[in-house]
């Protein structure tokens, strides 16, 4: 199906409308998770990757499938299991008996949208197979480096670590995810609506295949460029850095956020500005994206964990302690 914004140069208003149309498209099958959809689209147009965490049945996989269907891009899914090998994800070389040469067999990571389903079901060796492609958008197989076409986005889902048979993600890999988004249960009204939708002859999930593609690869590239061109005041840059630096010296935080955090805060804040039809970033844009960007980059002390202090409480306290610039 052809996309609505298939041709021509997009203006800022067009881009904001296009993003909204993708959001509305996904909302047709994913009910009651509007904020989550907006966060995932923020990561897409900021050029990052996203980690979705929640108990089974909240629609993590459905969200990724609906996103891929809403875009005219290639999509691959890998179900991570304890016996999955790195070569099952990125590919491997095979010996051709006829030619006497080794040929590369590309894995599912050679795509635009990669769903790494239940990523923490696989051991660290397999999880780490994604390190190179997430950072450099390329894969090296037997010494040969192959690039991945743009856009490229990894959407990984995981169950909470207290679930049986899960492995924690390596710190280096966690840092490569722009955001860690926690999915909670929908509101009462949304849950009732979901119940109605999924007890009909044709379930809600089966409607994903009927979603139209809203944006082309060219549209996505244009929107990403418009986001990159959003204006950021010097005070906003300083505000983002101060927030990240505060996390490193915060009482009860063993390890704070690194340099990628402040970079990702500004990138995500630019997308938030575009979504709201502005060509400049405000402190509120920064405040909105900080929790999802810092959440997986902090390591709390045993004392804070024993007291039951959550990551969200620590991040809220950090935001409250750093004065936001005034316009």
TrEMBL record:
Alphabetical UniProt keywords: ATP-binding, Nucleotide-binding
Pfam hit, one: AAA_lid_2
AAA+ ATPase domain boundaries: 46-187
Gene3D superfamilies named in the record: Magnesium chelatase subunit I, C-Terminal domain, P-loop containing nucleotide triphosphate hydrolases
Stretches that traverse the bilayer: none
Matching SMART domains: AAA
GO molecular function: ATP binding; ATP hydrolysis activity
Family: Belongs to the MoxR family.
PANTHER family referenced in this protein's UniProt entry, alphabetically: MAGNESIUM-CHELATASE SUBUNIT CHLD, MOXR FAMILY PROTEIN
Protein name per UniProt: MoxR family ATPase
Organism: Pseudoalteromonas arctica
Organism lineage string: Bacteria, Pseudomonadati, Pseudomonadota, Gammaproteobacteria, Alteromonadales
């Amino acid at each position: 199906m052809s996309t609505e914004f298939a041709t021509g140069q997009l203006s800022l208003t067009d881009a904001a409308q296009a993003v909204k149309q993708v959001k509305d498209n996904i909302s047709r099958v994913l009910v009651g998770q509007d904020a989550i959809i907006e966060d995932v689209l923020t990561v897409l147009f900021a050029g990052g990757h996203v980690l979705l965490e929640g108990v089974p049945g909240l629609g993590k996989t459905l969200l990724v499938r609906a996103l891929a269907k809403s875009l005219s891009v290639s999509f691959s899914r890998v179900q991570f299991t304890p016996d999955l090998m790195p070569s099952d994800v990125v590919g491997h070389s095979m010996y051709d008996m006829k030619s006497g040469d080794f040929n590369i067999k590309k894995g599912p990571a050679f795509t635009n949208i990669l769903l790494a389903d239940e990523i923490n079901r696989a051991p660290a060796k397999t999880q780490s197979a994604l390190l190179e492609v997430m950072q450099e958008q390329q894969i090296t197989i037997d010494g040969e480096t192959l690039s991945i076409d743009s856009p490229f986005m990894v959407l990984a889902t995981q169950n909470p670590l207290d679930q049986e048979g899960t492995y924690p993600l390596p710190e280096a890999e966690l840092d490569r995810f722009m955001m860690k988004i926690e999915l909670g249960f929908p509101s009462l009204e949304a849950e009732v609506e979901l119940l109605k939708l999924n007890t009909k002859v044709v379930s809600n999930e089966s409607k994903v295949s009927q979603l139209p593609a809203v944006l082309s690869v060219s549209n996505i590239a244009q929107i990403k460029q418009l986001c990159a061109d959003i204006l950021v005041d010097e005070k906003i840059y300083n505000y983002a850095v101060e927030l990240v630096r505060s996390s490193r010296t915060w009482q009860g935080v063993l390890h704070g956020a690194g340099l990628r955090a402040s970079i990702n805060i500004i990138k995500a804040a630019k997308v938030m500005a575009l979504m709201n039809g502005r060509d400049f970033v405000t402190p509120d844009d920064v405040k909105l994206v900080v929790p999802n960007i810092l959440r997986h980059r902090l390591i709390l002390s045993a004392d804070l964990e024993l007291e039951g202090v959550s990551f969200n409480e620590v991040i809220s306290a950090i935001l409250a302690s750093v004065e936001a610039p005034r316009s």
